[in-house]
Design brief:
single chain, mainly alpha, Neurolysin, domain 3, 3-stranded mixed beta sheet, two-stranded antiparallel ribbon, 5 strands, globular
């Protein structure tokens, strides 16, 4: 089927409701004889052409659902993809991988172009178990249930029902009593859904543990390291956890003392540990947000602004908050269209501004990849690379925050907050990673033990300098608000690793702005078939999260913050 089923921001060039026709197309790939290297390369092209059509349609359906979790027709289409199409694709992906790996011509393919593909597909052949397909379908159903619950979560505020992101935005309020009220309202909201969140997570942990056992692993953590084809080990992660605790947390404690002093408070409570030193939210209307970000991007590089304006004009941005919209923010690629889509559900706040800039780093990376190499394939997506350009974009625009904060003191406060965020991205996702190591290597843990462990790890890292007395329960259950724990397990440490690279990019920018921006664009358009270290090198930074690297970047970050007088 080649006609466009529905004109929208994505192209639906294949009818996923016609399951028999889809299966016939996939089966035809399995029937193709491969009698030479050129046959194999042609087969790979045909496979890719079909795969990206399926991918764009499914991505569009997923985004449609996240944009409106309460629409029955949209939900039905999305669930059809998850419950019918996804299992079919899993079954045939395994057969296609076997056909590829068993071809006598595989090792005659160009290693630079196809080496990573071969490695990933060989890994998938080893991991595939047919009995895991229904478990993975159930896993996705639970994730959908999580999105529905969070999308429908509202909080009473001054007599009005408000979306949850609105309450989160109030943590930036200058009035400490408002921040405290918002923090406690969030705790009350989580308490209302706690039993549902526990039930979902309990079942996810057991499902994922069984998936790992079926594939021959002791636990889901070890399984996921192979699934992700990580270029570093479990021990490397534990070492990174320790290095950050040793070198970043003491620096964070010193900076927290500075923030506490500026606030003029006797105790530094969780509602003080937010972006609350600017007088007002950076914008009130989404159109104002987009105008300002476009200008900031244009002052950095004309290509950045060109892509943003194109997305704005073509319905590829959904940035406002509303009831029924899934929480969080993300950027996703549309491989047939050659476009990217940015989704965000945030009320006006400093964080929502930074989140959009962050996602535009992903978007620019996506457009550069497409223009240089065509549609990027799933096996090429490594988040340690992707997050380098999102964090990098934040830091390249650090000196342009005066567009939203024209008052000099507000501008300095905004810069400090962005750099404070850099600190939080060094320890926050990393502590989330450690939490997941514990969850999945202790799969029989109870909900109570999970809350206690989350509090313990939070206190070791981000909440180390914070007075948490009397709030142990609220903090312990706050893991429920982290989408990554539910929908993208073990996607956390990549943020912290890539932040070390982004800080190096900032260091380069301070020395030579033009060269740093060109290096950013060169790396963002680099061949993704390379190793992570090679791509980082093209960006002018090092893929290094050893103790010396962590210590050096921690000192650099602390100095940059202190230099903002």
């Amino acid at each position: 089927m080649t006609k466009d089923v529905r004109p929208t921001y994505y192209k639906e060039l294949i009818d996923l409701q016609d399951v028999d026709a889809l299966e016939t197309q996939i089966q035809s790939l399995l029937n193709v004889p491969i009698e030479s290297v050129s046959d194999l390369e042609e087969w790979l092209k045909d496979e890719k052409n079909l795969t990206i059509k399926i991918s764009e349609a499914m991505t569009g359906h997923q985004v449609d659902f996240y944009r409106n979790t309460e629409d029955a027709e949209i939900k039905s289409t999305y669930l059809h993809d998850q419950q019918v199409i996804q299992p079919l694709l899993m079954k045939y992906e395994a057969k296609l991988n076997e056909k590829f790996c068993e071809s006598p011509y595989v090792h005659q393919l160009d290693e630079k172009r196809y080496g990573l593909m071969r490695q990933v597909r060989e890994s998938k052949v080893k991991l595939f178990r047919e009995e895991n397909i229904p478990l993975m379908v159930k896993e996705q159903e639970l994730c959908t249930k999580y999105s529905e619950i969070m999308g429908g979560l509202t909080v009473e505020w001054d007599g009005e029902e408000k979306p949850f992101p609105f309450i989160q935005s109030q943590l930036d309020n200058l009035d400490r009593s408002v921040r405290e009220k918002a923090y406690k309202k969030m705790g009350s909201a989580f308490r209302q859904i706690k039993s549902d969140m526990d039930a979902i997570m309990d079942e996810l942990v057991q499902l994922r543990h069984q998936i790992a056992l079926n594939a021959g692993f002791e636990n889901y953590r070890d399984y996921m390291f192979v699934v992700k084809n990580r270029e570093y080990s479990v021990q490397d992660c534990y070492d990174f956890h320790e290095n950050v605790e040793k070198h970043i947390i003491p620096a964070w404690n010193r900076l927290a003392a500075v923030f506490k002093s500026k606030l003029g408070v006797d105790t530094y409570r969780p509602w003080d540990n937010t972006a609350k030193l600017m007088k007002n939210p950076p914008y009130t209307e989404v159109s104002t947000l987009m105008d300002g970000v476009s200008e900031m991007l244009g002052k950095t590089d004309s290509y950045f602004a060109d892509r943003f304006n194109y997305m704005r004009e073509n319905g590829l941005l959904d940035l406002g908050d509303r009831k029924g919209k899934s929480p969080g923010g993300f950027c996703t690629g549309l491989p047939v269209s050659g476009d990217t889509f940015v989704f965000a559900n945030f009320s006006p706040s400093f964080f929502s501004l930074i989140a959009l800039i962050h996602e535009m780093g992903h978007a620019v990376n996506g457009y550069l990849q497409f223009s240089e190499h065509g549609p990027t394939e799933d096996y090429q997506h490594r988040m340690e690379v992707a997050e380098l350009y999102s964090h990098g974009m934040e830091l390249l625009l650090l000196d342009k925050l005066d567009r939203f904060y024209p008052d000099e003191e507000d501008f300095k406060s905004a810069q400090r907050e962005e750099l404070r965020r850099a600190f939080t991205m060094l320890y926050g996702p990393l502590s989330g990673d450690l939490f997941q190591h514990w969850m999945y290597t202790n799969p029989t843990h109870t909900a109570k033990e999970r809350d206690e462990k989350f509090f313990e790890i939070s206190k070791r890292y981000g909440l180390n300098p914070v007075d948490t007395s009397g709030l142990e329960e609220e903090i312990g259950m706050s893991w429920a608000g982290t989408l990554h724990f539910f929908e993208v397990p073990f996607y956390n440490i990549e943020y912290s690793i890539s932040m070390l690279g982004a800080l190096q990019l900032l260091e380069n920018y301070q020395k030579d702005q033009e060269q740093a921006i060109e290096s950013f664009k060169k790396g963002a358009s680099a061949d993704y078939n390379q190793t992570i270290a090679e791509i980082y090198k093209e960006t002018g930074v090092s893929f290094d999260f050893s103790e010396p690297a962590v210590k050096r970047m921690g000192k650099f970050l602390e100095k940059v913050i202190q230099d903002i007088h």
